[in-house]
Amino acid sequence: MAEALLTLEGVHTHIGQYHILQGVDLTVPRGGLTVLLGRNGAGKTTTLRTIMGLWKPSRGRVTFAGRDIAGLSTPDIARAGIAYVPEAMGIFSDLTVAENMTLAARRGPPDKARLDWIFAFFPALRRFWSQPAGVLSGGQKQMLAIARAVVEPRALILVDEPTKGIAPAIIDNMIGAFAELKREGTTILLVEQNFRFAAALGDTVAVMDDGRVVHRDRMAALAADEAAQTRLLGLTLDAHQ
Asked: Does residue 236 sit within a domain?
């Protein structure tokens, strides 16, 4: 297995009076795609938000590229090379697609070659380039959210359920885009319920339950083990497709 780019060690996160993460241990190997699975309420989104500094861990270490980032602000974590695509997408509906992309580019106007690469997977973004992002469909907004995260190369991308409510044709384009990101060396941590998508892309998998990681494996091994799927997730992967 490749060296770890990101590790969480004994991470606890409280939100108000609620103790959501209860000692999360997670390793994300460099250059691969790690899938984070679990039933609703297991703590998957809280894990991503804790990594990104949106919620502060009350205990434990979050180490990225050898540096403890648990105490950093969200902007500093982003500057360190981590991008986040939340389930809510986080786009600016009143701004044009072009303006959304420009805001996401830290080093000035987006690079033309990079935009052409993005348009190859998400051609609707070229078509609506000068239109307000609010006119996009749900699937097109998800394309824009992902495109914003990858408008510049990032070391690590955190993605929360990118295929939720998205048409199969767009999902196929996303598979191509994420596969290409992997080929260029980007590390991805993905929360996902579409197991066809997860199995097509995932290298490693971690399963969460009740605020902890309870199972780690190769994604291919879990995809082939229906008994483990039922034990850990309640349903087999086939039942989720």
From this structure: yes
pLDDT tens column, 23-46: 999 999 999 999 999 988 999 999
The answer to whether 59 touches 10, Cβ cutoff 8 Å, is yes
- Smallest CA-to-CA distance from 174 within 5, 34, 164, 127 is with 164
Question: What rounded mean pLDDT belongs to the chain?
Answer: 91
Domains in the chain, number: 1
Residue 199 lies in a domain: yes
- Residue 56 is classified by DSSP as -
Instruction: Please give the model's pTM, rounded to 2 decimal places.
Output: 0.90
Q: Residue type at 141?
A: K
Is there a domain that residue 133 lies in? no
pLDDT for 202-211, tens place per residue? 999 999 999 9
Q: Mean per-residue pLDDT for 65-83?
A: 94
Could you read off the pLDDT of 120-146 as tens digits, one per residue? 988 999 999 999 999 998 888 988 999
Tokens of residue 66, six digits: 């050898």
Strand partners, 14: 19
Residue 211: CB atoms within 10 A of its CB come to 22
CATH number at residue 225: 3.40.50.300
Distance CA 200, CA 141 (A): 23
Three-class SS string for 175-212? HHHHHHHHHCCCEEEEECCCHHHHHHHCCEEEEEECCE
Half-sphere exposure of 233 (CA within 13 A, CB side): 23
Q: Which structural domain, as residue segments, surrounds residue 51?
A: 4-81+154-240
Residue 123 lies in a domain: no
